[in-house]
Model the fold of this input.
Amino acid sequence: MFREAFGIKNKSEISKELAAKAIAQFERIIISKDSKFDRIQQGQAFYTDLELTGFGLYFDDDPDLPDTECGHCHNIPMATSDDF
Ligand code: HEC
Done:
């Protein structure tokens, strides 16, 4: 697929520039405005039980689950604190 996308013939033609373009193209397909998560935050959708368990794990929001600390840096709404 990489060869087809960039019109190259063999692995030796793969450069870091092409790899960066492939990653950038992937990042562009990520829904970041109207995802289910966004709709739930706006009260327009609801988590399944499994998703609720994930939320509880990720945001340390469920006393019956272990804390994962993810939400400290990946906080709502943008999933980042911008604090590298
Ligand atoms: C100490 C801060 C910190 C904690 C805690 C943390 N992360 Fe991250 N995470 C980052 C940073 C910084 C990045 C890279 C920049 C970004 O995507 O915001 C990142 C990137 C990611 C990415 C890639 C995002 C993308 O855009 O491709 C995922 C997925 C992720 N983290 C999941 C998790 C999960 C799951 C947990 C908990 C188990 C977690 N992180 C805990 C700081 C943290």
Q: What stands out?
A: The radius of gyration is 19 Å. Residues 8 and 18 are 10 Å apart (CA to CA).
